[in-house]
Amino acid sequence: MGGIGSGGRRVGSGQKGKRGVVVQHPSAPAPPGPPSDTFDPPTSLRGKARAIWAELAPLAFEMRTLTRATEASFVILCRNVALERRMATRRYGAGNANHRGIIQRVDAELAHFCLAPFGKPLSEAKPASAVVSKWAGLLK
Fold this sequence. Notes:
Elements: H1 47-63, H2 71-89, H3 97-112, H4 136-139
Helix pairs in contact: 1-2, 2-3
């Protein structure tokens, strides 16, 4: 155990002092910006869940995580948030196992749409003109 080939990368391991350029993963969400395509909630979404759509959708549009392709998942998120809020107001429903389970579900779904805080600001893409080669100073 613990010999060559076991494990993998470790946090803090590797060469010290030299830092490479961090490149954003292609599947990472786009940085916040103007919403690309906004649309109304589906007609099947009613009541409190529709009000939650009105509350959360502008943020998801801004983060560019709510699209036509993710609309069905967002509808489920809205319904689960409505269910959690209803369970939280019940005298014997708040804090029980079912309530804790729906809280975990809502937290995971909020994270899918980048609506939950995760401790780091999203990096904004630099314009192409701002990227300067480290050799540019020597060529002048």
